[in-house]
Amino acid sequence: MQINCDKNLSITERILKVIDNKDITKYKFCKDLGVSKGFLDKPREISTDKYANILSYFPDISPEWLLTGSGSMFKNEQPEATKIDPTDGVNTIPFVSLSVAAGFGSADFKIEATDVKAYYVVPKFKDRKIDFMIEVAGSSMYPKYNSGDVIACKIIKESQFIQWNRVHVIATREQGLIVKRIKENGGDSILAISDNKDYPPFSIPLEEITGIALVVGVIRLE
Question: Given this structure, which CATH class describes domain 83-219?
Answer without folding.
Answer: mainly beta
